[in-house]
């Protein structure tokens, strides 16, 4: 389950202005992107804790809804009416074989869509993984298409990405406080509420624009049966590629008589 999102260096112009970041957020038509150029190989996403993951907030979509009129208004308020005066940007994409069927067409869509909706010029650029990671870690570039696949099934794995001093050039003391307090709790309902509050703050401050989750493909023999290969309520089946989830899949299937 790979989540893809746009991320910015929020310490330098133009992305030090939250109105610019929110303009990009509301300009993105995630559903169109997934159903057209991505050929339904990804689900649209509007938040960090993806659909099906613990702590997912069904109401978060409203905070990141596609609203090009609002996006243009925000960009104009930030000093870039119809994109005038906005610097030309390179969207850095890391070269990673199994992700390129998603990343390359997504980059091209983002380029065309932001030009159409905001009048800004984006150039997608594919780089080797080391150059991409070094630039992200050292804050030497300001605009990335980033993938992330969770390491363990708990909200803290995703939420920790945006803690001060973490993966991204963004810092917010209120977010840090909420996430660290939630991480230390044992009561799930109390934890979930704090993560929900932190995630809504994250969406409002927009150090990232969450876009989509990749759908992985797998095949199996017709005599493989059981819960591990049965569709969930969304019509999808648990992942086989992620080691954590695959353990569940492998222990919830059986070989039927054939």
Written account of the structure:
The protein has 258 residues and is an alpha/beta fold. It has two domains: 214 residues, Dipeptide-binding Protein, Domain 3 (Dipeptide-binding Protein, domain 3), CATH 3.10.105.10; 39 residues, no CATH class. Strand 3, helix 4 and strand 4 form a beta-alpha-beta unit. Helix 1 runs antiparallel to helix 3 and helix 7 runs antiparallel to helix 8. The model has no long low-confidence stretch (mean pLDDT 92).
Average pLDDT works out at 92
Q: Biggest β-sheet: count, sense, barrel? A: 6 strands, mixed
**What characteristic shape results from the CA principal axes?**
globular
Q: Poorly predicted ranges (pLDDT <50, ≥5 residues)?
A: none
Please state the second-level CATH architecture of the largest domain: Roll
- Which fold name is given in CATH as the topology of the largest domain? Dipeptide-binding Protein, domain 3
DSSP E strands, number: 8
Helix content, binned percent: 25-40%
């Amino acid at each position: 389950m790979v989540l893809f999102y746009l991320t910015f260096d929020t310490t330098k112009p133009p992305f030090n202005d939250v109105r610019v970041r929110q303009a990009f957020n509301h300009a993105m038509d995630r559903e169109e992107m997934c159903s057209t150029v991505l050929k339904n190989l990804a689900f649209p996403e509007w938040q960090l804790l993806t659909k099906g993951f613990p702590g997912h907030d069904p109401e978060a979509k409203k905070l990141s809804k596609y609203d090009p009129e609002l996006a243009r208004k925000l960009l104009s308020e930030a000093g870039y009416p119809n994109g005038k005066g906005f610097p030309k940007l390179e969207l850095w994409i890391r070269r990673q074989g199994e992700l390129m069927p998603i990343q390359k067409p997504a980059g091209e869509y983002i380029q065309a869509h932001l030009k159409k909706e905001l009048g800004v010029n984006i150039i997608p650029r594919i780089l080797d993984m080391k150059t991409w990671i070094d630039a992200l870690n050292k804050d030497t570039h300001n605009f990335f298409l980033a993938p992330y696949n969770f390491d363990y099934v708990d909200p803290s794995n995703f939420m920790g990405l945006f803690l001060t001093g973490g993966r991204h050039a963004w810092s917010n003391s209120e977010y840090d406080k909420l996430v660290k307090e939630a991480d230390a709790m044992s009561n799930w309902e109390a934890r979930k509420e704090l993560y929900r509050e932190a995630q809504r703050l994250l969406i409002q401050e927009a150090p990232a624009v969450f876009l989509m989750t990749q759908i992985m493909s797998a095949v199996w023999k017709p005599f493989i049966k059981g819960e591990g290969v049965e569709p969930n309520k969304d019509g999808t089946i648990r992942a086989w590629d992620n080691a954590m989830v695959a353990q569940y899949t492998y222990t919830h299937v059986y070989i039927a008589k054939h």
